[in-house]
Design goal:
Blueprint lengths: L2 E9 L2 E17 L2 E7 L11 E6 L5 E7 L2 E5 L8 H24 L4 E5 L6 H19 L7 E5 L4 H10 L6 E5 L8 H10 L7 E3 L5 H6 L4 E3 L3 E6 L9 H13 L1 E4 L5 H13 L11 H13 L9 H13 L3 H8 L3
Parallel strand pairs: 7-12, 7-13, 8-9, 9-12
Antiparallel strand pairs: 1-2, 1-5, 2-3, 3-4, 5-6, 10-11
Helix pairs in contact: 1-2, 1-7, 3-4, 8-9, 9-10
Length: about 350
């Protein structure tokens, strides 16, 4: 029976360091990081379940133990361990692809794209920056030209979705749904979205229920959608457990380009923040010295498993606290940690 030696890990909020467990299931990626399923062997007492999942950041944070005739030997997993530079290169390449795909959507070469990644890592910022550049260029050409895109955030009803798609149904238009995840959990909305994203030559949408809103806004009950759609979400489609929802999302997936920004661990999210800081785009509106900025990043790195979230917003929250007091670390410990 295999055993695993955890060098560094977390079970819920409990640090796990230099402890051995009976291995139940090898390391697998989860919604919030990498997890090893083990039998806790009484380490945490009877109040906790026997079978638990321990979170690890890196593949070298644990070792598989081979038990041969009572002699225990430690063997390092053969999987390649990415260096921090390799992780940042991978993530940086994904964001470059996001920029290129957004430009293609503006040109009309890409009709539909799903962008998946954790909150607060710059998914929306990159897309909106490309859309603003396009709008600025169009206004230089024609000062009276109206923007051909819209970013919609938050909850949306099926009828609201139908109206929004009609408004931006012309060729060259781009509509961005940012964290509008309610669309994914409504059958009518999903069917409308599937029709808009269809790969056929003509994408025709219909609304055959009586609606005072459509009459008032003079919106037809049938129209052809010629625009492009970018759907930005925190939900990783691969982690959905519902069979019904899997089928729906699979239908969307088959119609779209699917870009996963591949940031599943707190460490990867921190490296993304560090990457943006290196470009000078993180604290540009703060009058921080290099020492202060470095201290904020060091604080986030040291406490990445305790912070309520690892995001650009969290970095800026902590930067705000440097204006409140020289004792900002104590305040951040109280207000930004679990």
């Amino acid at each position: 029976m295999a055993t695993v030696h955890i060098k560094h890990g977390m079970y819920r909020t409990i640090p796990v360091k230099d402890m051995a467990f009976t291995l139940v299931k090898d390391c697998t990626p989860g919604a919030k990081g990498n997890y090893i399923t083990v039998n806790q062997n009484g380490h945490f007492g009877a109040a906790f379940p026997d079978i638990i999942r321990i979170k690890v950041d890196h593949m070298d944070d644990f070792e598989i133990i081979q038990d041969d005739d009572g002699v225990v030997t430690f063997s390092t997993p053969t999987r390649h361990h990415e260096t921090d530079d390799e992780i940042m290169d991978r993530i940086g390449q994904r964001f470059e692809i996001l920029d290129d795909m957004t430009k293609a959507a503006i040109r009309g070469d890409v009709k539909a794209m799903i962008v998946v990644g954790p909150p607060g890592v710059g998914k929306s910022y990159g897309v909106e920056a490309q859309l603003e550049k396009s709008t600025l260029f169009n206004r230089i050409v024609d000062i009276n030209k109206k923007p051909k895109h819209e970013v919609i955030k938050g909850s949306m009803s099926p009828l609201g979705l139908y109206c929004a798609l009609y408004k931006y149904s012309d060729e060259g238009s781009v509509i961005v749904f940012d964290d509008c995840d309610s669309i994914l959990f409504d059958d009518v909305s999903l069917n409308l979205l599937k029709a808009a994203l269809d790969s056929g030559k003509k994408r025709r949408l219909s609304w055959h229920s009586d609606s005072a809103l459509l009459r008032r806004e003079d919106i037809p009950d049938t129209f052809e959608f010629k625009g492009s759609v970018i759907f930005i979400t925190n939900i990783n489609f691969d982690n959905i457990k519902s069979k019904k929802l899997q089928d729906h999302l699979g239908a969307l997936n088959s119609r779209c380009h699917y870009l996963d920004l591949t940031m599943n661990t707190m460490h990867e999210k921190f490296l993304r923040i560090k990457q943006i800081f290196a470009k000078g785009d993180l604290f540009q509106h703060y009058n921080l010295s290099q020492t202060q900025a470095d201290e904020i990043l060091e604080f986030m790195d040291e406490n990445k498993e305790k912070l309520r979230e690892m995001s650009l917003r969290m970095a800026l929250k902590i930067a705000d606290l440097t204006k409140v007091s020289t004792n900002w670390k104590a305040i951040a410990t109280c207000t930004c940690m679990k």
